[in-house]
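U., I forgot to send this yesterday:
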Amino acid sequence: MTKLTLSTHPFLLGFEQLERLVERTAKSELGGYPPFNIEQTSENSYRITLAVAGFAEDDLSITVEDRQLVIRGRQEEDGDQRRFLHRGIAARQFQRSFVLADGVEVAGATLENGLLHVDLKRQTPETVVRKIDIRRV
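Result:
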């Protein structure tokens, strides 16, 4: 018995990109920095919340690149102006990526109390029925 994948299953035509997407997503780690939550806020909307304490709006960037939501953070170094006796608050740069399904768009983002909220909304596709004429040869 042979193992069927998305790209080799006879009823799933044109899903090769979906298989590559699953592979790419599996490579990204769920843990790490900064910690985040993903919640479903309604039937067609989601919210990603990242803990970005110490980051200002200008230190953060949010982009969508080829159906991939990319959130980056980079703080400017203070140089030698401050002398820490203990430094336990992370001030390192980060990049978090989330793959978006077709029809999912970024609705907006807010920074509140050290939490970056990115709201996503799924557009409901119209049901289209198209009749295909059969030609005689």
